[in-house]
Amino acid sequence: MMAKRQRISAPPWWDEIVGEVTGNGGYLHRGITFLPESRSIVCEAEIDEKTLVFKIPRSSILSAPSGCDQYAWIQELRDKTNDRCKAQNAIADLILAYRLAGEDPTYLKTLPPPSSWNLLPRRWTEETLQKCLGGSPLMERIKKQKSSVTADYRLLCNHPKGKGGPTFEAFDDMLAAVTSRAFAGAKDEIMMIPILDLCNHARGKDEKKNLEYKILDDGSVEVSATAKIAPHEHFRLTYGAKGNSQLLLNYGFAMKHNLETDGSSNDFLEFSFDGAPAVELRTGPKDYTYGKFIKILEQILGESSASLEEEEEDDDMNAFLDGTDEMEEMDIYGAASADEVPEDTEQNEEIENELEALKKLKQVIHERIDAYGCKGSKLRDRLECQDGSIDYFSSLLVLSEQRCLFFYFLCAEKVGILLQNKDLSTLDKADGFKDVPINDEDLSLIDKQTSELANVFMTIRHGNGF
């Protein structure tokens, strides 16, 4: 006889929140329970696709700014005519954080302990930040976020109705809960939705969501299965196509394989040269990367990007980059067409300028890699942890950024080879980047994508003249 499967033992607050939800007219499928070890909800009995998994009534949802008349005074902080009364965080976030820090709804019992918010970089010490993220462009955003929490708390406390409010520690904890767990509602409304916020994030080619939710006209939230869910399977939503910098900054975690099925990465890296506006670099197929590559080259060449922007809006250009159409020869820098070939001396000078820009770009990328405090063997060791720690999640972010830098370095290397009328087969694609721990499968993908990008550059810029 088959042994009876042991039921997962959920904590007492689980029955309490389920009782509140169902008592207010909500619904919870019998095949759902809470798994304490991972602080997430899992399936106990098989659930079919399109099945209603649970429904959370409006009365069980905490929201802002609607339904928060008692905190209407915080709305005054949105007045931008007086800089001394301008909040740095979203008003709805501040209302919910202030409310949760001063009230005691059942929902608070569903939150993890305050120590869990320490995974958010804004709560790390300066020493930890430097050790884990030194050299990352994210550092600047973290510093701004740190100061904004303190500034907004003081702003609240200095308001006549804010006297005697929650402690900074309580407010800081609840703001962390709001920014990492809230859902967007109508207009400026954000919502803390019990049970739904216990679902894991899933995105990319390796893991898909198995739940989707919709907000009904009465303000309640219905959650349905998008696929058959097996026993012991975790319930998964998607927070959207967010990069690791967004996930780490706002949610306190990062993803190991943050790639979509088309090979594009959700991660981005803020890159600028000599004080120019930052470009958000991404890796992926040519239609994601060509414009980014040109922009950073233009920064180095000191050229205006106006002509590029006009070209990128052209239907022929978009069709060509999508690989769906042929395109006549064109020159993004305004050189002559095939019917009006420039003098050899002018073309040679243009090529020399491009080669010099590519050389400078590779130099800058090497400097950016060298600036990271975590790289090489140290980065490899931290990636091996896989323990949900600060070291592990920060290493995933750092790897995604160094991977992006390597991608554009390799593309610059290949364009330089083609400009000199040489064969790409002569290139050692890993040469000079032994310190970036990219596996063979990923390296193969990057090699394919950068070769496509380099060939597109030559076609658009030089009409395949090499």
From TrEMBL:
Query: Which molecular function GO terms apply here?
Result: protein-lysine N-methyltransferase activity
Q: Does the keyword Coiled coil apply?
A: yes
Entries under InterPro entries matching the protein: SET_dom_sf, SETD3_SETD6_MTase
Per UniProt, the keywords (alphabetical) are: Coiled coil
Q: Which Gene3D superfamilies does its entry note?
A: set domain protein methyltransferase, domain 1
Superkingdom, taxonomy of origin = Eukaryota
Coiled-coil portions: 341-368
- What's the protein name? SET domain-containing protein
Q: Which organism is it from?
A: Cylindrotheca closterium
